[in-house]
Design goal:
Length: 458
């Protein structure tokens, strides 16, 4: 079965075929690095990773670009409020550059902990300002941009296709005006969005700024993604990913500015990941339920269990995170590791299982079905089975559990001695000693079972 993916643009599941097979160009909206990466973010990046690994399993070569937004993202996605970096820098009494570096490192650490493949190219917004300025100039030339004394805006009324992705009309777009928000009186339409902010007014003290044809300033958030996507992947790409919260503003704006600048389709397939809820509610500052990598490690849970947990729900459905749920996933994960720890020889892949696995993933990345195949394959956790091991390693190219690096099961000399003592105790019906030795073996990390041949460790 060919890969089928849900395309937000057409609101239907379509057969995927890249523009220049076997290459697939994929742009993933990356983090805004002004705060800790949390498990909600991790769901999105694990989702991207599964998609990318699936494409590789199906024989495609992936060119995957992800941005790091380290400037220009205001506290409201629709250009209102303060710059997230300037605000955080003041709060933590650090420079904006230190803020960006610190949280970029934390992001990388979080990605590595859940074995996410690094993108082919990771691009920082602050290192691509000339490309952004060039794109804004192009929009000026074509009559889609205008200047006020505060900013350069994209004029949505000039773009007849504006709003197609989310199905919103411009007139439906409400602008939430808060008291602390300074609205530019010269902005023509509330839905117009900033391509470039000038270092004036509320941004007069902005510490991150660059020279431009319109004076010193900094880019708008949306233009960053368009400029970097085009710089590395060309004017039309196969897949663009993001969270569903990006559909109505960020991605709508990316499409508008890109397609008006080039005159071509910007993205062939839009893939959006649904939200992660925590204990049934949205994550929020006041509830302090933004759990991150450190919270997982503090509970002695292997972060890779998150992958298993997330894969049991479709990426297109909301997922409810609970610590109990993650504990269950961790127990399941340890079972898979247990199987892996007992394998040494790699046999022959079971082609019918692998075909079933590819079919499951080709069905709009049906990871739950793929996980069900895993349990069918691995039922006896302590049996060495070279063919199943080969098949599981093929599955793991997508699961990303890093099973090939699972420490191998071995019985130490000390444990072998304890087994002999315990078998002797049992033969002598000295069950008190036998139980005591069982406890000692369990403390060493072994599972102890009694068989007709005596004590068996796994
Ligand atoms: Zn983006």
């Amino acid at each position: 079965m060919a890969l089928h993916l849900y395309n937000t643009k057409t609101r239907s599941i379509e057969e995927f075929s890249p523009l220049n097979a076997p290459t697939v160009t994929m742009y993933a909206c990356g983090p805004t690095v002004y705060d800790f990466t949390h498990i909600g973010h991790m769901r999105k990046y694990i989702g991207d990773d599964i998609l990318r690994r699936t494409l590789a399993l199906l024989g495609y070569e992936i060119k995957h670009v992800m941005n790091i937004t380290d400037v220009g993202h205001l506290t409201n996605d629709s250009d209102e409020g303060d710059d997230k970096f300037e605000k955080k820098a003041k709060l933590e009494d650090k420079s904006v550059w230190d803020i960006a570096n610190f949280y970029t490192d934390y992001f990388h650490k979080s990605m590595q902990a859940v074995n996410i493949l690094p993108p082919t190219i990771e691009s920082k917004a602050t290192e691509h300002i000339p490309q952004m300025i060039a794109l804004v100039e192009k929009l000026f030339e074509k009559g889609f941009a205008y200047e006020t004394d505060q900013a350069i805006y994209f004029d949505v009324s000039k773009d007849l296709a504006y709003g197609a992705l989310s199905g919103q009309k411009i007139s439906d777009k409400e602008v939430a005006v808060r008291d602390d928000v300074v609205i530019d009186p010269n902005k023509r339409n509330p839905a117009d969005f900033s391509l470039w902010f000038k270092r004036v007014g509320k941004f007069a003290d902005h510490t991150m700024y660059w020279q431009s044809p319109w004076g010193d300033g900094f880019p708008g958030w949306h233009i960053e993604c368009s400029a970097m996507s085009m710089a590395y992947l060309g004017e039309t790409i196969d897949i663009h990913t993001g969270g569903i919260d990006h559909i109505p503003v960020h991605h709508e704006n990316e499409i508008a500015q890109s397609e008006c600048a080039t005159g071509h389709e910007f993205v062939h397939f839009w893939v959006h990941h649904d939200f992660l809820l925590v204990d049934g509610v949205k994550m929020s500052k006041s509830l302090q339920n933004f759990y991150n990598l450190d919270d997982i490690l503090a509970r002695n849970i292997n972060p890779l269990a998150l992958r298993l947990m997330f894969m049991q729900t479709s990426y297109r459905k909301p997922l409810n995170f609970t610590w109990d749920g993650l504990e269950v996933a961790h127990t399941q994960f340890k079972k898979v590791q247990k199987f892996a720890s007992h394998q040494d020889t790699i046999g022959t892949i079971n082609e019918s299982y692998l075909a079933g696995f590819k079919d499951a993933l080709s069905d709009d990345i049906n990871t739950a079905k793929a996980i069900a195949l895993l349990w069918e394959l691995v039922n006896d956790m302590t049996l060495a089975d070279p063919d199943k091991w080969a098949t599981l390693l093929a599955f793991d190219e997508v699961f990303g559990f890093d099973l090939k690096n699972t420490p191998k099961f071995s019985i130490t000399k000390e444990a072998q001695q304890l087994v002999i003592e315990r078998d002797n105790a049992r033969a002598a019906k000295d069950f008190a000693t036998s139980d005591k030795l069982r406890a000692v073996l369990e403390a060493l990390g072994y599972d102890v079972s009694d068989t007709p041949e005596g004590t068996r460790l796994s």
